[in-house]
Amino acid sequence: MSLVLNLPDKDTPIQIPCHRGESSDTLTLTNLTLKHTAAGDDAVQILMAKMGRGTYHKCVDVIVKITLNAEDIEILREEADFYVDHLKNFWGKFVPKFYGYYQDATYGCTVLQYCGEPAVDHLLKLKLHEGNNDFRDALIQGIYTLHQSGIIHNGLDVTHHILKLDSKPFIVDFCLGNSEVFHALDERHQWDTAKLLATEGGVKPKRLPCIEILEFLKSLENFWLPSFTDWFGESIIYSDVDSPGYLYKQGAYQHLPDLYNNNEFWELAVAEWNNQILPNWKKYHPQEQDAPTNIAVDLDTYEKNGGWERKVFD
Asked: Would strands 27-37 and 2-5 be described as parallel, antiparallel, or unpaired?
């Protein structure tokens, strides 16, 4: 088994023998294009390619990781061993299919399934306002399943390691992965994914069974960001709120006739605006650059500008 490929900077194809793989076929890579290069002059290049197998002519999209650097060759080899020894049961599910690691005296090269592009936008959606975030839920299920199988990624990053292909999440880059058995800190704190996902939009738990899951969810920035609130009897979606006046108007004034006067109720609306909406404006309104500045922040101005008049019943 070997790999034949035409590198963009080479005039003739090169052939590299297989060091670790699951097939006896020769793989041929064509249409190689550079996606990016890791930092460093001799770093790993990441290329997109079409892969043909043996005499089978149907090509599939693949990712090629290739390097000339001795240290990086060793890193690729160890990652390939990890794919074969620990991730095989998950190939094509939420980790890429592994098509082999190839090495000679010059090159180290890994061929993996193409798993789409970074999925940052899908990960950062607010769940309740934008519909169920099935993509993110499936990803968390995948991470949890890996952990329950004793596999830790050790470097999950929202912008680099989570890809999306055909609405499915994939976790990539296991060069730091290890297979230490996963244990919760305490059996009483074992969590299943249903319990974990139920915390979304609520209070961040004080303990989770794994630091990696906790740190990853924190990196999403809005996993524990409330999507709505019960505002004096009205269910208010935070991403609909564009001013203190919106809260003032939407408050169910008829339910609380004697508890607050107009000024007190306005101050409550301003406090909610300052404490919850403004600090998280871009998370609630990802399509807008900045929070509005030409809004009334005192009741007199709000009413003079034609604001809604709150009625207080006797």
From this structure: parallel
User: What's the CA angle centered on 143, arms 142 and 146, to 5 degrees?
Assistant: 85
- Tell me how long the chain is: 314
Which residues 6+ apart lie within 8 Å of 155 measured at CB? Answer: 161, 173, 175, 176
The HSE-up count of residue 285 (CA atoms within 13 Å, CB side) is 17
> Could you report the per-residue pLDDT of 124-164, keeping only the tens digit for each?
665 544 545 788 888 888 888 888 788 889 888 888 899 99
End-to-end alpha carbon distance in the chain:
87
Global pTM?
0.72
Maximum separation of any 2 CA atoms in the chain, in Å: 90
pLDDT tens for 220-278 read 767 777 878 888 877 888 888 888 888 888 765 545 545 778 888 888 889 999 999 98
